[in-house]
Design brief:
9% helix; 2 domains; 693 residues; Methanol Dehydrogenase, Chain A; globular; 38 strands; 4-stranded antiparallel β-sheet; single chain; 5-stranded mixed β-sheet; mainly beta; Cytochrome Bc1 Complex, Chain D, domain 2
């Protein structure tokens, strides 16, 4: 469906000319209403004469027309009415947007006083006017034409909309969702790059990105790579050559705290993203132009740094916060952007779980942040989301007699019906977390043998390096696997999975200092795992660190403790851990340790390779069977996102994004002073391939 049709159907209006809007009678010059609206709403950013200002580019001239020339004026109208003013798209009335569009078209040489439905933005100029510049350097002559270049392929000519079925089982050559598909595996069936030839990988292409924390996995569809860069910019590149196809730049409200995101999402012919000004935005995947742009309701004082999940035509997004009342998950119709539901991740009085907050009033309950995207199980029709802990640990630490202080739904897996928001089941992995050890990470959906029976399961882990396996249909607890570095959980109930912390390690301002492992930063943390279902192997990277929790009057946690990094008592100085875990037997098959901690997620391929990245700016490949390092290369920046792989015209590529700033980039650099982080943050996408020339 075309952009204009979608927007008009959502708004419930039809295009009308300036005369029908009652504007023609307001002034003798039909452009006067547009000039007045521009001066009031646009000139501060775009300049008084539309030629560009301090905060935004020109709305006239060759550069503007190279993007908008020969396009219907109605498409320009749709764009500005959904995107402007920055962070407030749709705030102006329809007639004002029409007047602004008419002004822009006229200032670029188009007709004035004509119905917008009959207008086309003038075409970009064909040649150069041969003017030089103030330095006396000439332009390019049009008297002696340059040889014509070969026409470039139109990579969007045969664009195929992304379907629900593909999001579960993508074509081998594509990477169309976070972790490649909705099941959260981080696994690709491609096998051209193998343990035997991985050492022959070379850079195929690279592209610089806007500088800043860049954490989103790229997506690849039909030979096009989509990258969500810092500053809410989105790029489309030719995935084989790196040629830029389009760029979307969102104008952000002044003072917006910019947040890096873990992911963007493809659905139908749209690219869907969450923005730092707490909007959900759908772009046309072929052009980068907005289709719909909606504000997330009830999202004040929250942060959006996880990314969307789109399943069965519903866009879902989780938000992080420390505000009173806690976090939330919101849902929207993917076709129109219509808001469908919100779910409070901190249970309120009178609702399910509302009696688990130690008798705290609703407005004194905190936490329940969501800062990782969800997964979707097509067999059960359930969307699975993880929820974090509460930093406000003091009020729930000591049980009020006769009450319950589990603190739902912190550290839980939530299973929703996407369209209605019905909570079908939940499982709390760690009740009453007093240590800031979240369980908010990816949910892996797969099948494995449990006690001799084939089960469809959900696998997820917390910062402490414990991985729970639960039934995908019911949330029934099945098993827990321990990576082996935590020392504070002393018992796990084999029937319920409830975990018992060591009472001697309970922290607080009224208790002595506590030394325990791991550190509140993990253990395992931001970086997603990779799952190979054929042999039930889960690959995880983590950090071998501990913490001292010192009592204080204030405190990072409200029980009255500050948290300090420490090495384990028996540390060998290698803080980066990579493990291969057999989830059926619960055994750690191998472990690889290195000095610099890992900072990127893990990619697994059908040829038996693992790819990941570390704080020392190294991009690395390992053997899945043994953990042996097979290949490494240096990058100019720290890799923060998870690597991906894809294929174009039969050639396999491996890509990784840099741009230091995810949570793993902080705290540990002082552990390895000989490996300083770059003083100049370098954000880029690197793509590697075998040299087949």
């Amino acid at each position: 469906m075309k952009i204009a049709t979608r927007l008009l159907a959502l708004a419930g209006v039809s295009l009308a000319g300036l005369a029908s809007a009652g504007m023609a009678n307001q002034a003798a010059d039909p452009l006067d209403p547009g000039r007045a609206a521009y001066a009031a709403n646009c000139a501060a950013c775009h300049g008084a004469d539309l030629s560009g200002g301090q905060f935004a580019g020109s709305l006239t001239g060759a550069d503007f027309l190279s993007r908008w020339g020969d396009q219907p004026a109605t498409e320009l109208l749709d764009y500005i009415s959904t995107s402007m003013p920055p962070g407030g798209g749709g705030r102006l009335d329809r007639s004002t947007y029409e007047a602004l569009t008419a002004l822009i078209v006229a200032e670029n040489g188009g007709a004035a006083g004509v119905r917008l439905a009959d207008l086309t933005v003038p075409a970009a100029p064909e040649g150069d006017d041969e003017q030089g510049n103030e330095l006396g350097l000439p332009g390019i002559t049009n008297r002696y034409p340059f040889p014509a270049s070969e026409p470039l392929p139109d990579l969007f000519a045969d664009f195929t909309p992304v379907t629900q079925e593909e999001l579960v089982a993508p074509d081998p050559e594509d990477w169309i969702a976070w972790r490649r598909g909705q099941l959260g595996h981080g696994y690709s069936p491609l096998d051209q790059v193998t343990p035997e030839n991985v050492s022959d990988l070379n850079v195929a292409w690279s592209q610089a990105l806007p500088v800043g924390p860049t954490m989103a996995e790229p997506l690849v569809r039909d030979g096009v790579m989509y990258v969500h860069a810092y500053g809410e910019e989105v790029f489309a590149f030719d995935a084989a050559t790196g040629r830029q196809l389009w760029r979307y730049r969102r104008q952000m409200p002044e003072g917006t705290l910019m947040q890096g995101k873990k992911t963007i999402a493809l659905w139908d012919d749209m690219l869907i993203l969450a923005t730092s000004d707490l909007h959900m935005l759908a772009l046309d995947a072929r052009t980068g132009r907005p289709i719909w742009d909606v504000r997330i309701p009830d999202a004040a004082e929250t942060r959006s740094n996880g990314g969307p999940l789109v399943a069965d035509g519903v866009v879902m997004i989780g938000l992080a916060t420390q505000r009173a009342g806690g976090g939330l998950i919101a849902a929207f119709d993917a076709e129109t952007g219509e808001h469908l539901w919100n779910f409070d991740t901190v249970a309120k009085t009178g609702t399910l779980g509302g009696d688990t907050w130690n008798e705290l009033p609703d407005d004194e309950r905190h936490g329940g942040s969501v800062w990782t995207s969800g997964s979707y199980d097509p067999e059960t029709g359930l969307a699975l989301w993880g929820v974090a802990q509460t930093y406000d640990t003091g009020p729930v630490r000591d049980l009020v007699p006769g009450s319950n202080n589990d603190g739902l739904f912190t550290n839980s897996t939530l299973a929703f019906e996407p369209r209605t928001g019905e909570l079908v089941w939940y499982f709390q992995h760690m009740a009453n977390d007093q240590y800031d050890l979240d369980w908010v990470f990816e949910r892996v959906i797969g099948e494995m043998d449990v006690d001799g029976e084939r089960r469809r399961v959900v696998i997820t882990g917390g910062k402490e390096g414990l991985f729970d396996t639960i039934d995908a249909a019911t949330g029934e607890y099945l098993d827990t696997v321990d990576m082996g570095f935590q020392d504070f959980i002393i018992a796990i109930d084999p029937e319920t999975g409830r975990k018992t912390p060591d009472p001697a390690l309970l922290p607080g301002r009224d208790r002595p200092p506590v030394f325990m492992c791991p550190h509140a930063g993990g253990g395992r943390n931001w970086s997603p795992t990779a799952w190979v279902e054929q042999n039930a192997m889960l690959f995880v990277n983590a950090r071998d660190t501990c913490m001292e929790m010192r009592p204080t009057e204030g405190g990072f946690l409200s029980s009255g403790v500050d948290i300090y990094y420490s090495a384990p008592a028996d540390s060998d100085g290698n803080f980066g851990i990579l493990q291969g875990i057999d989830m059926e037997s619960g055994e750690v098959r191998w472990e690889h340790r290195r000095r610099a901690p890992y900072d990127a997620g893990i990619l697994a391929t059908a040829s038996g390779l693992l790819f990941t990245g570390a704080m020392d700016r190294e991009f690395l490949a390992y053997d899945q069977a043994t953990g042996e390092q097979l290949w490494r290369t240096g990058l100019t920046g720290v890799p923060n996102a998870s690597p991906i792989t894809y294929s174009v015209d039969g050639k396999q590529y491996v890509a990784v994004v840099t741009g230091m700033g995810n949570p793993l980039a902080f705290g540990l650099p002082n552990f390895t002073p000989e490996l300083p982080v770059p003083e100049v943050n370098s954000s880029a996408v690197y793509v590697f391939a075998l040299d087949t020339e």
